[in-house]
Amino acid sequence: MKTTDLTLLLSEYKQLTSWKDIYQWQRVKSKGNTEIISEWLIRDFNSFTWNINGIRKDKFRIDDHHGFCSNQTDLSQLTEKRFCRALYNEHNIYQHPLLGLLLDYEIPLTEPNQAIKENHGEIDLISKRDGEMLLIEAKISPSSESLLKAILEIFFYITTLQHFKLLNQFFLEYKKDFSGMYFKGFVPCVLTFTNSTSGQQLIEIQKYPKLIELISIINSTLKKMAIKQLEFYLVETTIDDRSKFLRKGEERIDKKGCKILLNHYVDVKQCFPDYDKKSYQDNLETKITTKEIEILLRSFFTYYRQDAINYIIGRLNNLSLNFKKYNEIYPKNKASEALEILIARDFPFREAYTKIAKSYNCEELFELNFSLLNYHTIRTFVPIISKFKSDTILDKFIDLYYNIPIISTKDYDGISAKEIDLVAEEIIIKAICEYDSEKIVPILKKSLLVGIIGETKSIAINKLLKYTTKEEILELLPDFNDPNMGFVMALTNQKTNADWVKEFLSKY
């Protein structure tokens, strides 16, 4: 509901006297009005009143909230309420890695019995995470409501409760969920989708400097009330067909509803829209846990991609140089002390980058990724590196194949055999099959009797047939009728692989 008539917009704005008026004003929904309204709110932030009329005083928790929804509407229709219930159903027993354990959804803030009803809305989701209670405002795809609208909603909800000393009562109704846990406070959150209007604004936040300034003022206000600063979460999904987002779960006993579930994993990342480049770097220097660093790196990439790339390259290259330097130090006890400091400070950073590397693979990071590729990181970095082609890369893959990690050993009648990481083996075979070179023939022959049966093995055989014949391949397969092959069959899956290869080649 954008208006290009600033006189009209200002005229409407001047009629608003309370924060309830502000957050319910239709004009704040429009992306196009974000900056001008943010500017006015910055100027008049302390001018608006708070109204307790119609606010629920207790009984925020609704007894029949068990994640069910009506069967009357087909599940192909994705709505905000359905998404929130589905997320609740997925994470009310097993906590979400970022949002925690979801406790409830659609928590009403409006008193039900009013002579003249005033609507104060409802909180979409609440959760507990490390002793904190998160109050979450959700905007799903393809909502056209602005990020400003979402921020004002959750700011109004949590501040109203605190202003009228109801936040403690709110917590008491969920206190049993925090049993045995020290309560650390309340956190207001905005959860939105990348392909919603608010999500796009969150991604392109630099276009909205006044909104960033308003967020800073809101955070300062929350801090004075002993409430944590706003947190922002972005749902990244590759599902274009919204009709396939949800699926049916457990039915109600009366058959009048069912639990609604997510049909696929929902990837959520935390964003820090009020951080500048220096803030990201300063925080990355002080964070020591892999999870904290991973969260910051993902957000850093969202807002300052090239700066994030440069920072990662610089820091990890410096880590490698220091590691090499400390290994050369004598006496060794001094090197050991230095390495302990290095590992404590920088190795969590490398681990965090390894976790996100696949999502942010690009040519500028190739040399770094190649340097991080070893037999411990095959699963992560081979698929990344394989997007680039060269003889050097192929030689590296071949060397890795002969050094695939051993995950266990087996014993049979006094004879031992080593079991390799079959997933890593499959990943390397798939990568080298993208090359046309005589170098790969010995590897392909070796892979016939190991690895996982399926698509990758069929690709390997087809590639091998470019360099040899069907008959020559069959001659490579042992005779498992030989009694001396008994220990091989007991310790390995070679016979199973050989039988599968014969069956595959029989079609030629």
Tell me what the structure shows:
This protein is 46% helix and 14% strand. It is α+β, with helices and mostly antiparallel strands and 508 residues long. The chain has a six-stranded mixed beta sheet with strand order 2-3-4-5-6-9, sandwiched between helices. The protein has a three-stranded antiparallel beta sheet with strand order 1-8-7. Strands 10-11 form a two-stranded antiparallel ribbon. A hairpin with a 2-residue loop joins strand 3 and strand 4. The longest helix is centred in the C-terminal third of the chain and has 25 residues.
The number of helices is: 21
The biggest sheet amounts to:
6 strands, mixed
Low-pLDDT segments, ≥5 res: none
Helix content: 40-55%
Give the number of DSSP strands. 11
**Spatial strand sequence of the major β-sheet:** 2-3-4-5-6-9
**What oligomeric state do these chains adopt?**
single chain
Average residue pLDDT = 89
Helix vs. strand class: alpha+beta
| DSSP strand content | 5-15%
End-to-end Cα distance, whole Å, is: 65 Å
Radius of gyration: 29 Å
Can you tell me the overall shape? elongated
